[in-house]
Design a protein that fits this description.
Length: 85
């Protein structure tokens, strides 16, 4: 008999499965928020005067860029403020 170190048939430890599931849920919820916003923004922007598909795309692109910049700032702020590790 070979000892597999507690691994199941999938090749992952239960703690690894739990961590992978948690990460998948976090990223899934982030993507859900974006995909819930896309159809609403597209319908709203169609009624705005002077809107074009290019401007709608730029608005979504800027939104993604802003979210990334804010996330980066929040990740760096404990380092700058001198948080103890």
């Amino acid at each position: 008999m070979s000892h597999d170190g507690g691994r199941e048939k999938s090749g992952m430890l239960p703690v690894e499965k739990r961590a992978a599931g948690s990460l998948a849920a976090i990223f899934g919820l982030r993507m859900l928020g974006l995909f819930m916003l896309l159809p609403i923004l597209a319908l709203y922007a169609e009624d705005l005067e002077g809107s074009t598909p290019l401007l709608m795309g730029l608005a979504l692109g800027y939104m993604g860029l802003l979210k990334r910049c804010c996330r980066f700032r929040l990740e760096c702020s404990p380092t700058v403020m001198g948080a103890k590790s």
